[in-house]
Specification:
globular, Glycine/D-amino acid oxidase, 7-stranded mixed beta sheet, about 25% strand, 7 helices, 8-stranded mixed beta sheet, D-Amino Acid Oxidase, Chain A, domain 2
């Protein structure tokens, strides 16, 4: 088999790369063993500001604009619906938070995304002494449905090989990459936290941040928006809600914990005043980087070996946007922004001058 790209990893990053290869008429094959991916347990919420501090996000409008085309395009391809535009209401915990919101409403980088008029009308069964702030251009991606439906499409079209990637049979040459029976021009590793097992990139500071969330049935809530307080609550249909998420910087396993469950329950009960039933509890390790910036670009030695990783908690918007940046860099020599270019670490580690 001869292709332009081998892509390793079929989570948000890898699938984004695959879809853009398809868009730009580049041939590819994707390999994934389906053993570990944070994408399937992601909350999936997207928004253009940091909801904790009401601060701006790098190139947020460009990311939103790209997603607004990318996800409907993928929905049409696989004949599924997983991209949902919903308002987000940020619950305020104090007058001080209200004041910080008003300051952000006047800031040139965030003013376009925040409603200066507080939402003072009550949301049934949601406790709020200090009201809510509405964030524009928001919603959620049903990440699990996106990943599964796109993987199914690729598998049915013989573009996804479900197997463990064996680095021992990978051969890198100057003009091509060889893997078993596959001959490719480039290889892109989009493995998420599994990058720690990758000999080409395992020295990079991918910390990993474990996150856990609950699926909860709340028949009386009837919420039609996302609410963010100490936890977020996302309506996903049939009276089911996602409640999340926790952050653990020490535990690097995918095991569910009673501590995280208790934390999420406490946050939920502080937010709502009606009965609920826990349906499921999931956990995964997000691919976060020490400097909170992605890892995108070529290997310092092998110019046909690439990485697309470090999407962190914002993979819904960053995945497609960064995949496009990478493919434009590879195919059209468009320079990568210094904020995302993995070469920043090659210099720090003295791998390049």
């Amino acid at each position: 088999m001869k292709v332009d790209y081998i892509i390793v990893g079929a989570g948000l990053a890898g699938l984004s790369m695959a879809h853009l290869c398809r868009r730009y008429c580049k041939t590819f094959v994707l390999l994934d063993d389906d053993k570990r991916t944070s994408s399937k347990v992601a909350g999936g919420m997207f928004n253009p500001v940091v909801l904790k501090r009401f601060t701006s996000i790098w190139e947020s409008q460009a990311q939103l604009d790209f997603a607004e085309v990318f996800y409907p395009e993928t929905e049409r391809l696989v004949n599924e619906t997983f991209y949902h535009r919903l308002p987000i209401y940020r619950k305020f915990a104090s007058i001080e938070e209200q004041n910080n919101w008003f300051l952000a409403c006047d800031h040139p980088l965030t003013t376009a995304y925040l409603n200066p008029q507080l939402k003072t009308e009550k949301i049934p069964h949601i406790k709020s002494e200090y009201f809510f702030g509405e964030v524009y251009n928001t919603g959620y991606l049903d990440v699990k449905k996106f990943v599964q439906s796109y993987q199914n499409y690729l598998f049915q079209n013989h573009l996804l090989i479900k197997e463990h990637f064996d680095f021992n049979v990978l051969h890198i040459e100057k003009e091509q990459v060889l893997y078993n029976h596959i001959r490719a021009k480039q290889i892109v590793f989009a493995e998420g936290f599994s990058m720690q097992n990758n000999p080409f990139f395992n020295y990079l500071p991918l910390d990993g941040t474990k996150g856990e969330l609950l699926y909860v049935k709340i028949p009386d809530l009837k919420l039609k928006s996302i609410v963010k307080a100490t936890v977020f609550i996302i309506p996903v249909g049939n009276d089911i809600y996602k409640v999340g998420a926790t952050y653990n910087w020490q535990d690097k396993t995918d095991d569910r914990t009673t501590e995280a469950r208790s934390e999420l329950i406490a946050g939920l009960e502080a937010l709502i005043d009606c009965d609920y039933e826990i349906i499921d509890h999931v956990a995964g390790v997000r691919p976060t980087v020490k400097d909170r910036r992605p890892l995108v670009g070529s290997h310092y030695k092998h110019q046909n070996v690439y990485i697309l990783n470090g999407l962190g908690t914002r993979g819904v918007l960053l995945g497609p946007y960064l995949a496009d940046k990478l493919i434009q860099n590879i195919e059209n020599n468009v320079p990568l922004d210094a904020n995302i270019n993995v070469a920043r670490y090659y210099k720090k580690l003295q791998l390049i001058k």
